[in-house]
Amino acid sequence: MKLSLGSLVTITDQKGRSHTVLLEEGKQFFTNHGSINHDEIIKSGEGGVVSSSSGMLYTIFSPALQDFVVGMPRGAAVIYPKDAAQIVELGDMKPGSKVLEAGVGSGSLTLHILRTIGESGSLTSCEIREEFLKVASKNVEKYLGYIPQNWNLKLTDIAEFSSDEKFDCIVLDLLNPWDMIDVVYKHLRAGGHFVAYLATTTQMSRLVEALKETNNWTDAIASETLYREWHLQGLSVRPKHRMSGHTGFLVHSRRMADGVSVPPRRQKPAKGAYGADYIAKQSQEAEDDN
Q1: Beta partners for 5?
Q2: What is the mean pLDDT of residues 245-264?
Q3: Range list of H helices, 46-171
Q4: What is the extent of the structural domain holding 140?
Q5: Most CB atoms closer than 10 Å: which of 24, 97, 100, 114?
Q6: Is the CB of residue 31 less than 8 Å from the CB of residue 85?
Q7: Among 156, 120, 143, 135, which Cα is nearest to 63's?
Q8: How many Cα atoms within 13 Å fall on the side-chain side of residue 8?
Q9: pLDDT at 289
Q10: Same-domain status, 99 and 58
Q11: Mean pLDDT throughout 72-80?
């Protein structure tokens, strides 16, 4: 890709530290190893090397999406690339898919979805906090260079969302997704995918049990994704000491057709799974909600 003013680039020094830079006329980028002229970056081009004023060498590339979202400005915690990739896969998103998301945060998942569904798909994003919506919008525009016409932003609670359109996939990144099951059911097509991103085991358990009670959803599958790189240097081959471990849980289920209940599973629950402790816990949660 030919670099020009307005291009977004990632420069990486000889110690492996990266910086994302928006190229502007006559500007300089300052690091611990001196300054770098934006004009020199443009002149060197993508795949080239530029030197700072103190002699540190930097490689130049257009930023990969996974690099951009980790370092982009945040209004809320971002959904990391490892989780975003799983959400896209679990939701069976593809070019032409119609997707609804609630809880936009900083726009990390938004970018992954937009790239997956292409221009033939559509994405509707609901967010109750205006400051988050502004941050997400700026991040999307910064990375893509424009606001896609097939991205519909709504400053609203998904509980109050109204549309005649049926979606192929709905993704929730909320504190209380179990309260939105009826809303999701209403706006999701039969056979559509429901994916929730959750922070804690109690949220995960509560959502799964709430889905079971309706009989309108397939057995939910809960998962988490761990990502670890490896150190490779001669005969020194081992896992790196740092890894991207637990960041969140994913719950995935599919909507049954109208008027159709999911067949009961011919599988006994674990002993004590729905014993006195579980019943007491459910009663306490009901009291707290009231």
Answers
A1: none
A2: 95
A3: 65-71, 81-90, 108-117, 130-144
A4: 67-289
A5: 100
A6: no
A7: 143
A8: 17
A9: 62
A10: no
A11: 86
Q: What is the pLDDT of residue 67?
A: 87
Q: Of 19, 40, 63, which one is at a domain's C-terminal end? A: 63
Is there a domain that residue 1 lies in? no
SS3 assignment, position 48:
coil
Question: What is the distance between the alpha carbons of residues 173 and 103, in angstroms, rounded to a whole number?
Answer: 5
pLDDT digit string, tens, across residues 129-148: 999 999 999 999 999 999 99
% of the chain with per-residue pLDDT over 70: 94
Question: Model pTM?
Answer: 0.86
Indicate whether 231 and 117 sit together in one domain: yes
Task: Report the alpha-carbon distance of residue 92 to residue 143 in Å, rounded.
Answer: 24
Cβ–Cβ under 8 Å, residues 58 and 16: no
Task: Answer for the pair 184, 263: CB distance below 8 angstroms, yes or no.
Answer: no
Which tokens hold the place of 161? 């969302």
Q: Are strands 98-102 and 122-127 parallel, antiparallel or unpaired?
A: parallel
Scanning the structure block, which residue is given the tokens 């004023």? Answer: 53
**Would you tell me how many other CB atoms lie within 10 Å of the CB of residue 226?**
10
